[in-house]
Known about the structure:
This protein has 300 residues and is α+β, with helices and mostly antiparallel strands. The protein contains nine helices and seven strands; from the N terminus they run αααββαββαααβαββα. The protein has helices spanning 3-19, 79-84, 86-104, 124-136, 158-178, 182-198, 210-224, 244-255, 281-296, and strands spanning 108-110, 116-120, 142-144, 147-151, 236-240, 262-264, 267-271. The radius of gyration is 19 Å and the shape is globular. The two termini are 16 Å apart.
Amino acid sequence: MSPEDQRAYDSLELRIQTILPEQYQDCYDEVEPVSMGSAGLKYGKDGKVAWQDIWKHFCDLAMAGGPPHKGKLLLPATPLEIQADPDRYTQVVEEICRGIKLVTFLESAPAEAPGWIRVECTTEGAAGWLARAIVMENVSARCEGTGLYVPAGPNYRIEKEVKNVITSMAKTCHYWMDHMWAAQQRIIGDLFQTIAKESPLIQPTTEADDALRTHLTNRLRDELGMEVAETQTPGWLNLPCPTIKSAIWLMRALVVANVMSRREETHLCLPLNPTTDPQGDHVLQALKKTLAFASAQGVM
Length: 300
């Protein structure tokens, strides 16, 4: 690499180190994406799930290279799904909010946007880090100011989707609150402010994205020679990668370029947002730089 490229790569590495808990710094490439298995539900005397008593340990963060909590992305319900069963939706939201309170002590409530719950975080940095970390666990999340948004739906089951949301909150908040010093949390907040000057955080859309999907698919093929996977998730493009390790490396590097990213097995998942990145320019340019670094480091 040229001296200029080396400086850019060193900056990338520093950003990645900055967002990781101390235990992963300087060794995150050694983390294996191996699951510890799923913890079973426990119930209190009142017959309700005792969410605070379920977990003693957590798998490594997906951000650090550990296994995502889910294999496929958990999506929020659509307005039509909610309208079809509003009472059940209310029950699910109340249970998720109860669980979040028990495992994180954070306050939450139904968001204005249907299908979402707003969790009030202490700082914008906390909301931004948790949103990125939760998405990497393959649970939908987004952030706005100090608000962290997680999904809900009337079809969510206690032992499945409800547990998925609460587990992802418990896991990521555990690492944020218990494995990071206050000074590091402030540094992460400062980093997010710095990279926001380069680009707004590109988060996946919740609106129709067909035109942008087609446009970016064509650009990826024409400019990078990359084909997207046939199976797609609303708001996302899936790019096949050679290995799980390469998908993890690219995912992490893109996140510190302010591109919300995640992976499903060997697929790197890129966000589509016709408002903040209408032509896919930032996603594409960030991917180009990341691929160049990956090639230079022998990742791809």
